[in-house]
Amino acid sequence: MCSGDLGGGDVLDDVAALVAERNRIDAALARCVRAAELSQAPERDGQKSMASWLRGHCRLSPAEASRLVRNGRALEHLPALAEAHDAGLVSAAQVAEAARAVTPQRLASAAAQGVGLAVIDAVFTQVAIDQPHGDLVQVVQRYRDDLDPDGPEPDPTEGRSLTVVKHADGSRTFHGCLDAVGGEKFAVALESFTQADRPAGDERTRAQRQADALVQLCDNALASGGLPTLRTVKPHVAARIDLDDLADPAPGKGAAILGSGAVISAARARWLACDGAVSRVVFGPDGVPLDLGREHRLADRHLRRAVELRDGGCVFAGCAAPTWWADVHHLVHWIDDGETSLENSALLCERHHTKVHHGFRVERQPDGRWHTWRPDGTEITTPSPLLAPVA
């Protein structure tokens, strides 16, 4: 709790003290994350990296998990900045800016050019302590430019990135960067759809028309049937809805579930069904699919659909891999007379499918929850929600 009169300076002192304390905690956390990374600790829980472990076991966002890992690595190369961070004088955001200058590629470039990292460390630290955040951003950028005055090599993949963030309501936001050639291809393709869809009286903004064009581009790619197959299934948009809600003319807000787990209205599900195939899936009283319809003689596609509907993604503890990254795993191996059935199946991403074939084990409990065990027989658990501090 903050102390003092809100109109006075005491509360501001409290704020400054808390910011410094947070900085110290962030420094300790980054160092601990780096120590765990160096010891390959995530492997114990079947994860390939600290970033994936932080996402699955500590419920951090992908961006925050990655920043923590990068900061831990950067502190090793910038001891003066690390000391200031430990003292609470430098924030995690400032360390993240400095981390952009000490990537493996830039460290190699600095060594090749005889650039002394100790001097850079001292400059970064002084600017971070004494000057606004924006000044540090500029100093780091100038250092990066000086290391590579001629610009990057013409490898387009190094200049491309795309981050897609899914929000609680199923909507998505994008942040990306394309090289000149890739950007030109994207702009030309998008503009063709943007210009082709300009009905009379259209009041959409340019941004709205471009977003609609991007969705249309995806619609056309999905409808063409030419996209790569994902885990034996052609890419498709799936929506699960009760038959009564599908037939009911009411909007039915929150009545359907997309493959990603996003919830949409029955009206939007009916709209999707107008241009897609409808398959009947009958669920038992425990929510497990019983009858998958008979579109084809072979049941492989239908069994996979049932497993996807039941599991929703990789069931390994701490993993959030989507269905299209996952294989259908036999809990009792087929070679050991295990049946190819829903009861004997689990959805596992490629990495965790391999882990389960090398000593890890997953098991579905009667309540429908999945549990995961290490090769030594101990269970992998994700942390419980953080407890409120004791007064």
Automatic annotation (TrEMBL):
UniProt cross-references to Pfam families, sorted A to Z: DUF222 (PF02720), HNH (PF01844)
Source superkingdom: Bacteria
Domain HNH nuclease per the UniProt entry, residue ranges: 302-354
GO molecular function ontology, one term from the record: zinc ion binding
Family, similarity comment: Belongs to the Rv1128c/1148c/1588c/1702c/1945/3466 family.
Protein name in UniProt: HNH nuclease domain-containing protein
Organism the protein comes from: Geodermatophilus aquaeductus
Phylogenetic lineage: Bacteria, Bacillati, Actinomycetota, Actinomycetes, Geodermatophilales
